[in-house]
Structures are given as structure tokens and as C-alpha cells.
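Long-time lurker. I teach an intro course on protein structure, and each term I like to show students one example going from raw sequence to a predicted 3D structure in C-alpha cell notation. This year I'd like something fresh instead of my usual example. Would anyone be willing to generate the C-alpha cells for the chain below so I can use it in lecture? Attribution to the forum is fine with me.
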Amino acid sequence: MSNYVVGVIFARGGSKGIPRKNLRLLAGKPLIAYAINTALASNLIDRVVVSTDDREIAAVAQEYGAEIPFMRPAELAQDDSPEWLAWQHAIRELKLVGSGLKRNIFVCIPPTSPLRTVENVDACILELLETDADLVITVKPADRNPYFNMVMLDAEGCARLVIPVNKEFHHRQAAPQVYDMTTVAYAARPEFVLQAKSMFEGKVRTVVVPPEQAVDIDSELDFKLAEFLLSKSSSH
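-- Reply from a regular --
Happy to contribute to a lecture. Here you go:
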């Protein structure tokens, strides 16, 4: 059975932290352009689509080579709208379930991780194709560890480890390895996304990416960090 892989970039017009974030220029290009360029550069992705509620984002996305086969409904583009529902909407609009001869793969490439590589995205697709996973996420080694140096406060205001354990870990390397989820890429079986309410209802596998490729732009500081890393990479 052949594979048909659709990369979808979800880009709302609204953004509380950074207004018009997806169109904000980063090293001279709109933020969304980085996700589009990476998706187009992948030899595994057959089609690149942007899901947006915003006409200006749609126009810019088309300039950079993405398709806009549908507009996202406003109710799926609010600050509190679960992106999982936008995934389901895109899969239905693209008719990725029940097409018969091809094995369809859905890939989400968020615009907020402009330092990702094509290899990061392709690794997620291959992990999904080569295993029985329902979904593949990207992760990076966590800076903090809930078994060792992450705490919460109890009712009396005293600090307790987030995950209490019988054994005391005297250094972080001895604690179980934990990871931070990133917004680098997700690859999923469309059938699973449609029938599930969240990603962890299924069998989830991971691709580990370096922290410098997983910068997630959510603040002005993140923008400055991304610009600095891009300037360093372009100077070599």
C-alpha cells in the first residue's frame, strides 16, 4: 500500500502573547514561512496545507507555496479552542479517512518552531510508518525532573516533589529520564485522530530533537533567541 502524506500547518489569526505572531517577521520572513518551507522540502510529504481563520495569513501562506483548500471556522480558532478539534476538522475537510488504496498520514507542523529541520519532520513520519504507533510526537530532554527537582505546594504551603518516590535521588542523572513535549512536529493516523478525544488515548511514540531545534516562540524573548540562533547558523 502506498502512502499519501499531508502536512498541515495550523495558524490562527489571533495571538495573545505576540499579536499577529504567525505573520511576524523573523530574520526577514514571516514566521509561518519557516514551517511551509520545511514541509515543502520534505520528500515524504505529498501536500502542504495551511488551516487558518485569517485571510491575510491565507494569502501569505499561498505566496510561500502552501494550499488553502478550506478556511477554519471561527469557533475552532479561539484562544481556548482545543487544537485537537482543528486537527479533526482538517482531516474531515481533506477526506483523509476511507480513501482506500493509499495509507494516509497526517502531519502537523506548527509555525512556532522555526528552527526545526526537515529531518525532524521526516523522522516522525518514518516512526509512524515503521511502527504500530497511533501518533508520533517530538520531545527534547527536560531541564527539570519531577522525580528530582520539580516541586508543588501542599495545603500547608510546603514544597513536595511532584512525583514522590521511595528512593531518594541524590543527582539528576540517577532519576528516570523525562522529556518535554515540543511543537516541532506530530505525525498521526487520521483514523485515530477522528475517533480519539486526545493524543494520549492511543499508542504514542517519540522522536527526540535537540533543544536548539525545538525553540517554541511564545514570547518576545523566544523571538530574540530564535533570531540569534538563525544568525549563528547562517554565518557558518
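Some talking points for your students: The first helix runs from residue 31 to 41. The CA atoms of residues 192 and 206 lie 17 Å apart.
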